[in-house]
Amino acid sequence: MHYFTSITACYLPKARVLAQTLKKYNKNAVIHVAIADDLPQNFDLEKEDFDYIWQAQDFIKTANNDKWFFSHTVVELCTAIKAAAALHILQKTKAEKLIYLDPDIGVFGSLKPLEKMLNKKSLLLTPHQTAPALDLQGIIDEEICSLKHGVYNFGFFAVNNNKEGIRFLEWWNERLMNFCYDDIANGLFTDQKWGDLAPALFDFVHIVREPEYNVATWNLANRKISGNEIDGWKVNGRELKFYHFTGFDSGAHRIMLARHANPGDPVWNLSLWYENMLQKNGQKELGKVKFKYACYHNGTEILPSDRRIFRTRKDVFDYFDDPFGEECCRWMQARKVKEKSDILQTYKDMLKYKILYKLSIGKTRRKNKEKYRSCKKELQDWQKIINNAA
């Protein structure tokens, strides 16, 4: 059975844990890594548990790849290449079936049942939730979050290499090549929101509802982890198949664990196990490595606003053949510096919301605090531009 994941270099330790755990319980697993980045200088495939490495530059085909790569943040890029990578792998290897797993997943059991599901249906998806939220906070954290980010979690999907599976991948890939952006206000969240349409558009989709697949903080309210590393992990009394350690680097994973589990509960031990595994696989050395497309050629950091301007303004997109070059960098800086009056207004807003959130309570306090932090972040971005332009 063939599996693949999508990474940049900083996610290599996570991909190593994925590969090690996958092969521990699935001896015949063949794992592919699609990477939208340069590999570390000392990387040696012979010493890894990966079977294939595929460079995104080799299978992404656009009129100008530099423009396409520049247009995406690191998260957008890693998700935008997934359908193209799947098509590439199926074409090159002639694999009959292919399963995608996010790099921050650990596998704890045989995935043979998924192969059997693919004998009946050509596309497998897992919802973020398969049971209603238990309280008001759960509605906010789980159900409303799914409405924003997508009903189905595309940290996992599985397809057959047949007409149906290819039809889905080609449909999905066309949309990801043009609209794989974190733009919730306009109905987009990277690769995921498109999945909401899949069961309506394709009659060969099977929704995997079994609780042992794709366990994560977004469904822990209804899925209880038990067991240990020696005897094995279970969820709702069933053998855990794979756990998705989403939000691990940001700390969001621990925040949500604290909501759903008491200190010392098995799921906390599972989280600690994962943290130790990451350290053994190079997290300290690689975890904060900047990806290849993070900066202009002169070393200046590319801000998310630069990428948005580039991809939304056709005149800018058409003018710069090399968006990573000095000319584009200077233009982006000059555009911002010309708008210094906006800096003063943002600074005034920041002070206003800082005062308001300290004086308010409850939801109003949270909203004012969010606005204060947003203004503060915008000012920090402005400061970077001014420093680089000086």
Question: How would you describe the overall organization of this protein?
Answer:
With 390 residues, the protein is of the alpha/beta class. It folds into 2 domains: 284 residues, Spore Coat Polysaccharide Biosynthesis Protein SpsA, Chain A (Alpha-Beta Complex), CATH 3.90.550.10; 86 residues, no CATH class. The chain is 48% helix and 13% strand. It is built from 17 helices and 14 strands. Strands 3-2-1-4-7-6-10 form a 7-stranded mixed sheet, sandwiched between helices. The protein has a 3-stranded antiparallel sheet with strand order 11-12-13. Strand 12 and strand 13 form a beta hairpin. The longest helix is centred in the C-terminal third of the chain and has 28 residues. The chain is globular, with a radius of gyration of 22 Å. The protein starts with a strand and ends with a helix. The model has no long low-confidence stretch (mean pLDDT 93).
